[in-house]
Amino acid sequence: MLAPRSILPGLLAASFLLASGEVAPLETYKPQERNYWAFKPRSKPLVPAFTNPADRAWTENPVDAFVLERLHKEGLRPAPEADRPTLIRRLYFDLTGLPPSTAEVDAFVNDAAPDAWPRLVERLLGSPRYGEKWGRHWLDLVRFAESDGFEYDNHRSDAWRYRDYVIRSFNEDKPYDRFVTEQLAGDEIAPGDEEMRVASGLQRLGPLRLNAGNQEVASSRSEVLIEMTNVVGAAFLGVTVGCARCHDHKFDPIRHSDYYRLQAYFAATHADNVPVASASEQASWTAKAADAKAEVETIRRAMKGLEGDARKQMAKKLRAAQEKMPPPLPALFSVRDDYSRATPIHILARGDYRDQGAAVGMRPLGVLLPEGTPERPIGTEYPRAELARWITDPENPLTARVMANRVWLHHFGRGIVDTPNDFGRMGGRPSHPELLDYLANWLVDGGWRLKPLHRLILLSNAYRQASTSPLVAAAMEKDPNNKLVWRYSRRRLEAEEIRDAALAVSGRLNTKLGGPSVIVPVDQELVNLLYKPSQWAVTPAAEEHDRRSVYLIAKRNLRLPFMEVFDAPDLQLSCARRESSTHAPQALELLNGGFTNQMADALAERLHKEAGDDAAAQVDLAYRLAASRPPNAREKELALEFLAAQPLREFALAVLNLNAFLYVN
User: What are the angstrom distances between the C-alpha of 639 and each of 501, 599, 601, 608, 646?
Assistant: First the structure.
């Protein structure tokens, strides 16, 4: 069991903990609660060994051995290896989110060297596109957005710095324990370091309710603390701690008091925008903003007591006055500890901030601690750094398992635990428990770096399996969801991958890295629905509109229709795994949508430029760009028939609607 360890002793008296005379007692936990698999220490499983020559030949690394042992138990065999065009396309999308170029496909297909695959893996792990792809997974997990949500949905003009921090961290292969610590406590461990201040902006990524002229401070503060607490459980620990906000968790040994003891680590945490503008720039901005602020306050005072049309008319004037404010100065979107404003933390009946019970201090989840481990008083210095040390302790049974499972999920389409944010009793049980612990140990023993874990998985024969198998009928009967990895599961591209791939194959992709987010044109009807339509100020440089989707603005109240229809997350809650729905609006968007038709125009121009007027050459190039392979005989026949009756531009649009373009085998 893990005991929390403090970086520095608390400097304030323990009595600071209390806002009332009642202190919540420490909870106790039954042996059977502590004995649940996810809460037990990781095992050190032995790698299975095989005597059959065919089995020994297939088990190229430990991943294969664990997978094959499980298949044998069910009487199943792995699928044969996929062909090289399929493998390179699969790897490119898994590691970079982009398709390979025709030259890259040809080079790999014709590379007879025995180390061709490992060299390709290594090259893509070193690509800056790797951080853009895997950073996107993390941004989903922490519900990254650049606006507050709710009615006003105000912009967070500097939140993009956190997005760039995440991408940079993945590209640098920053150790995961360091990555976690920086986000939880960067401002505490290095308050003068801009990178660390940006990292701790994690605490401010949740939705924020701000009601002009009618803001209940206590209510808003409670919601902020809830957001800070819930993301710790979801992102780092993979347990649904939020279910204990209103009462003891119904299924897992997480007590009502556990939730608020975890929340207590954030009691002194407050928003902090750290200016990066010079003193003269700040003074100039203040002078420009003074008149607008005065007008806003005058209108707010005048609005008190008004109803009906007079409510509505003054609200229009208020919005007009707010529009006069100068754009905010550059700042670091961060947090800091302010012990003078630390919020006393009480157990809240039904989670209602107005119904306060006994007071609590700081303590991690009790089921993972020795019985009777005391809590720490609010006011203890560097509270979030202390929490981070407990989360990243190598002996913590959850952290490494959860992250290893996430890596497996994004390579195979489903996790070893298929509920990646819920390792509790209502979540899925691991399909390969020994393999999960082996991967988690590999992560920790490798210095918490993710790229060695990627290599282990990607160099396995299990990863290189085809999507079909000669034994598919028998296998589907025993394991229809492919939990046992008897083949590689075919998957549809994610929303960003479809958009980025369309830009890439059409020759329009702008590969610029980082910087402020891009706002692309959308239908004015959508813009008019915003509280402040001026928030959607389209980026003037047209070439910026062709950048990767990870750099498009993440606004909660206006998601791009193309992204929304292909199951991009709603930016409100942690999204550990993208869903993949199929419905009519997807086909309508691909056939009639403005973006797809622009890409069809560009692709047609590229086909004509590079293949000339030869229809057969145009078809061959189109398939090699969109599917990373030449067309088969039937595909070529149908394409030539189509081109004989339709213009090249319509053929290009059809190519962007092909399953061969939209899916990875």
Answer: 21, 19, 17, 15, 10
